[in-house]
Each structure stands twice: as C-alpha cells, then as structure tokens.
Amino acid sequence: GRSRVVERHRAHIVMSTTSSPRRRRAAAATRSKSPARGGGRGGGRDGAHVGSDDDGHIEPQRQRQQQQPAAPSPSPPPPQQQHRRPGAVVEDTIELGVMTLRLFIFMVVLAALVLGVVETTPAIKDNPMAMLVVGGAVVAFGFVLSWQQVGALLAMHKTSTPSTAVQFVATMMVFSVFTAAIDLIITAGGLLQLLPMGQAYLLSGEKYFDSVYGLVCLGYDGVVQLLLQAVAAFLILTGAFVKTADHAYVTLYWGGSVIASMPPLLIGAAGSGVFSADTHPATALNAPWLFVPALCSLFAFQWAQREYYYMQYVKAQKGDGAGAKRGSAIVDVATMAIHVLSIMVHVIRAITALGSRADVASAWLANVEPHLRSDSTAAIVVAATQSLFWLVPLHLLAAAAHCYRLMSDDVPPSPLTGA
Length: 419
Prior knowledge:
mainly alpha; two-stranded antiparallel sheet; flat
C-alpha cells in the first residue's frame, strides 16, 4: 500500500541523483540551500534522508538531532584579582612621594635659575617690557611642564584614575610651588637683603612689593603658601589618602588665602598709594592668581561636599543619625556664635580702616590694630572692605546652614546614591 509507494518514490530519487554527475551536483546544491525538514519528500518521519558521496555510492546521512534552543554560553570567569602583598601599597606611596619631592626640588631650583638669569642679563633687568615677556614665557613653560609631570605621576596610580579636575588642581599646586619659591627668594634677597638676587625684579617688575603689605604678602606666600601647595600636591599625587576631602580642605584653605590676599595687593598696593605712579607691565603676571584659585576652590568645594553628604548618608543607613545630631548640637551653637562674632569684627575693621570717628573704631585702632591707617598704600583699606562685602555674606550663609542643621531632622541626600 502506502509504504510500497514511499519506497518506490525514494528509489526514484536515489536513481535520479546518481544518474549523472551534473544531476548529483544540482541535487547537492538544492539540499544545501533548502532547510532541513522532518518528513515529506526525501525524508522520513525522523528526519533521516539519503545522500551520495563523490564516488556515486549511496550513503545514508547521519540522523539530524532535533533542534533545541541553544543554551547561553557561560560567561568567562572574571579575571582573578591580583593579590598585592601587604607592603606593596606602602612601597608605591613611598616611590610616588620621592618622585613628588624631586619635582618640588626641581621647581625650586628652576625658580632660582630664572631669577639668576634676570639678575645677570641687563637687557632683561633694565627693560620692564622684556621683564613681562620673559616672565610670561616662564609662566607658560612652567605650567606646561607641571601639567606633563603631574600627568605622568597620576598615571602611576594603581587604585583609581584621577579626573581632569584633579590633574588641573595638582598642576596648579606644583606650579605654584615654583612661583612661591620665586616669592621667597625675592623676599629674602630683594627686601631683607639676605640673598644676592631679587633686587632687579623689584626695580623693573613689581616695586609695590617694597611696601609693608607687599613684604608680608610675599613672605606669607613664600613660606605658608609654599607649604600648603606642597602638602596638597603631595596628597593628590601620592594617593596616600583614599578620601578626596583630605586634599580638598588644604586646597580650600590655599584658595581662600590667595583670593583674600591678591586683590588688596594689586588694587591697594599697585593700583593706589605711593607705588601706583610707577607700576610696570610685569604686574599683569599676577592675573592668573585672581581667577584660577577660585576655580580650584570650586572643585574642592564639590569634593568636600560630596564627602560630607556621603558620610551623612552612611550615618543614616546605620541608624545613628539622631545620636550624631544630638552630639553635634553644641558644636552647631558654638559655630554659629563664632560666625556672628566674625561678622561684628569685619564691620568694625572696615569702618576703622575707612576713617570712622566712632568710639568703637577709635578703641579698635588704639588697642587692637593700630596699623590699619599706617600703611603708605591702600592695601589694608581694600582688604578690610573686601572682607566686609565678601566674608560677611559667607558667615551669614554658614550660620544659617548650622541653624538649619540644628533645627531640621532631615538628612541631606547623597549625590552618589540619590537616596
């Protein structure tokens, strides 16, 4: 019956495929192009079908396995983390620290060489415009060199990849070590006569440094600022501390110090007073320090705020936020009182420097700061009024923040998690 018909049909297919090489090749091409089917013409119910080899012999093809959805290939196991021995981190930190100190020493030596060239080259020391051109070239070269060296040191970090903002701040700190070393040499040589260099830059560069405020500002930059910049750069470059707030606080102090000292120096000492009639073009070399410290401080504010919010979030997750709030209430009240007292001091200093005849101003001038009206420049007056208009709002905002934290039970959300 039906099985006999199927057998005859299958035999007919076999004879047709083996009758000629051309037909065999055509049949093979047809089978390769057509999808495999279970049953029907040329196949049985189990999907087996008959083919032929190149010699024309009939060869049953292997039974096709029933297609099943392919199982997902197992993902390769994650590479095993390299277990570093306990002293490796310390050794890396020491190595980076030594390289950072070498960079600092190089910057100080470079500052001495630059001043030495200025002192021994009459075409530079006697020409104010040449002083500006050479100073601008040295500033550009020093910044590019610092950027390259800082990038090389940050690339050695094995635990993290620092951002461009971190590299920029570290570059400014390293480069400011170079400029602070120049200020220290000018202070010791040009003003205090302790070194045989520094006088030429005062004569053809920035004569207003010979004022009382200029001497204090240069000495402060050459000692205190130099140490701050070195510490901040060391913390960033060595990666000795995990928390970014460690170097952010040092950067904030440095930025606030530069912002507070540079406008009085340039406006009060160079732009007004007895030295204003003899201001040279090299004064423009101080322009970057009017803006760059503010940008570095902005980055540092973001780092410190992120760290603070994250710690608040951790405390809230642990459930000890209320205890921390009760423990910090006394600190908040004391800090608010300090901010209010600072506002009063800034107001009294400003009216005293501006020549007020009020009793409180006279008492302050006689007993606290008699130098507020003794400088030959207007630097102290500018500093006092700057503190009044900038620091008083800052103290008000800080006091309001402590008051909010004292009266509110809310924990600020963490910018890292959004919770």
